[in-house]
Amino acid sequence: xxxxxxxxxxxxxxxxxxxxxxxxxxxxxxxxxxxxxxxxxxxxxxxxxxxxxxxxxxxxxxxxxxxxxxxxxxxxxxxxxxxxxxxxxxxxxxxxxxxxxxxxxxxxxxxxxxxxxxxxxxxxxxxxxxxxxxxx
Length: 136
What we know:
Layout: H1 7-15, E1 20-21, H2 23-29, E2 35-39, H3 43-49, E3 56-57, H4 63-67, E4 83-87, H5 93-104, E5 109-112, H6 115-121
Parallel strand pairs: 1-5, 2-3, 2-4, 4-5
Helix pairs in contact: 1-5
């Protein structure tokens, strides 16, 4: 099956439209109260690999709903006017998500160069994501 548009082209198109923050600049944003790191990976990835300290988790499948004030799933953190730094494992999902949120009109949106895998490889700070206790 030949697709009209493959994932590599989707990512390349997104990368041409969005801001990518280099690791060194991103590390400086860790202490910036006007910046929020948004981890869009699956919760199992966070529990297994950790996450950037003080990042919020917004699963990729819910992101557009959490960002839109008209959505019943809206999360106020997305409407505070802070710089949002999205990231995933390899900067593929975050590139696509950043492009979508930018198209939605979210200001100050960017994503992390190389994703969380590059962050860890550079030995930058990592926090543990604790799994929620199961009831019963």
